[in-house]
């Protein structure tokens, strides 16, 4: 017996009409499906083409509650700020919400995209260009007052077409310093700290400990997305060159860029100071390797000092200055804008939000935040205050370097840039590409990304 | 006349019955079909639509770019690498999965004790119910270069450590091993059900004709298991083309993009770089690839055996 649609039992002699019946049903179903599918695609086109603007609601009077979002790593410091402001202002209540870093970025994007943004948000400066370009952030009133107060790299990410849209707490420096164990240098009879890159290489080789083919102690570790990129860019700047073209694209194929990248490749392939074996290990950072005794020197930003002191409870490590790539030239470096505060355009409580920002940017509160979070101050007055440096002795190396910082530049997608350089670096170290070929590929992909954002 | 009136009445009854059945189906299926259309069908077409735009969720204006995103895929070495890695994963992991699960299913099925059989089936199925992210995290610690379980065992056997996740030639195999561990239980249970469904009469008849084990496997078991095999193959291929969690947790595409599969690249483009239009293009490409391969499989694997 063959069952044929609609529960009809058909004998062999009815097979022909059964088939035509099935064919009719199939054709009808297909036609219906095709019509529905076309309707859905047309609807998708129409909806994807644009979004309607949201009209601004009227400003209410009376007590105000401001929603303020931030990174949960700074929970204690931010709660302290919110409580202080709430106690001092009876009519304005700050409702703070902290999010883990990885969840915070998509959360913020989704909230702004859905026009459900918080009134104020603590954000990372290099995330902001797309928000600024699309009119999602309110321009800072009296911006002139702030321009001279902060270091240029700290406000660059919050500035778009000359307009300032945010105020920085932090100078995000990933250069200029290296984690060290002074005792290791002393044990090997090496001068501390090393004063040139030649000395760093020689000392790194002397301090390297191998177990067969594996590193027990890496002489100089820098294998993470931040350090690989910022060391490369710093070396270009220190040779007196730039990595930007006049039309807002990157140039990574200049002789200085090739020299800088070749040096980084040589740190692994020629001088054997570290390797790429932990690249795929998503559990740990290169600073964790250092704090576990797996490296004698490790290049990382000063923010890791707090990790070593509070998480690993270490007191025997130092933070030494990194010398210039070219002796005699200043140790210039590129820096992106770090943590700061912005106000959403759609907020109903702009005046209250500006009042809150003014409070956070007052010198005592700024300093309180920097000390509590171990962040390098964006405010020149705080950074250059000897009393501040005394409170954070291991940060002195970085504080002395701030004057050499240059804005990273408008890269639109900083993660794309660092990933492109990091992945390209691995390919060059593995000798699957020459340095020139690898840099050309990185340059092309980054410039394509820039064009996507500017066209 | 009497015959005509009875036939008309019978026809009217069937018509009423048919209307009742149709109404029942419409009332009870419509809500679930609406939900299905809204959350499963519409997003697919929405994604296809987005692939023709330079779309960012933050932008007010998202220009129509036509086929530019598709042309970009053809020029993007990272996407092509991701597609290659995805095919590499599928071509290794699927046969390994099918072979191992079939062998284990046949072995467990041959166990006479019902209690032991059920216990073994449960034990093999347990990894399937463990959260994939948690399992991947634990496996990545076992793969650790220093102090990881596997290298400790190798050290105990006086064998040098292996860079399980750090060597670009091995990393993908390490991820496949984890995937197989997490996944075999599901297919084992399905194969066991398929084996149970084969009537014993075929084996008895073959044995009476002098058939040995290998002959029984080739001429009786495998042919009569073809429908089950086709189902398992198609579902496993579809699932492995969409593999994501293990790669994101264990390697995040490293080292040197050796484990960067297409789903991970789609995720990176959509949620890290906020390039939703391009991510939708890659997702549509993956949809087409998976759809075509599934159709080919269904066509080739059509069963010629009925029992």
Report the count of strand segments of chain A.
Answer: 17
Cα end-to-end separation of chain A: 65 Å
CATH classification class of chain B: Mainly Alpha
Assembly status: heterodimer
Topology, number of strands of chain B: 0
Q: Whole-number radius of gyration of chain A?
A: 28 Å
CATH fold label of the largest domain in chain A: D-Maltodextrin-Binding Protein, domain 2
Task: Kindly report the name of the CATH homologous superfamily of the largest domain in chain A.
Answer: Periplasmic binding protein-like II
User: How many individual helices of chain B?
Assistant: 13
Quick tags:
heterodimer; A: 455 residues; alpha+beta; D-Maltodextrin-Binding Protein, domain 2; five-stranded mixed beta sheet; three-stranded mixed beta sheet; 17 strands; 15% strand; globular; disordered N terminus; B: 307 residues; mainly alpha; MetI-like fold; 13 helices; 0% strand
Explained architecture:
Chain A is α+β, with helices and mostly antiparallel strands and 455 residues long. Chain A has 2 domains: 64-173 and 336-407, Periplasmic binding protein-like II (D-Maltodextrin-Binding Protein, domain 2), CATH 3.40.190; 177-333 and 412-454, 3-Layer(aba) Sandwich (D-Maltodextrin-Binding Protein, domain 2), CATH 3.40.190.10. Chain A is 46% helix and 15% strand. Chain A has 19 helices and 17 strands. Chain A has helices at residues 15-49, 75-88, 101-113, 129-133, 143-147, 152-156, 182-187, 197-207, 225-238, 255-269, 286-291, 304-311, 350-360, 363-373, 380-383, 386-391, 396-401, 414-429, 435-454, and strands at residues 2-4, 8-10, 64-71, 92-99, 120-124, 159-160, 163-164, 166-168, 171-172, 177-180, 209-211, 214-217, 297-299, 318-321, 333-337, 339-343, 405-407. In chain A, the strands form 6 sheets. In chain A, strands 4-3-5-16-8 form a 5-stranded mixed β-sheet. In chain A, strand 11 (209-211) and strand 12 (214-217) form a beta hairpin. The longest helix of chain A is centred in the first third of the chain and has 35 residues, at 15-49. The relative contact order of chain A is 0.15. Chain B is mainly alpha-helical. Chain B has one domain: MetI-like (MetI-like fold, Orthogonal Bundle). Helices cover 75% and strands 0% of the residues of chain B. Chain B has helices spanning 2-50, 68-75, 77-109, 114-129, 132-142, 149-156, 171-197, 200-208, 213-224, 226-241, 245-250, 262-272, 276-300. In chain B, helix 1 packs across helix 13 and helix 3 packs antiparallel against helix 10. The interface between A and B is large, with 49 and 52 residues.
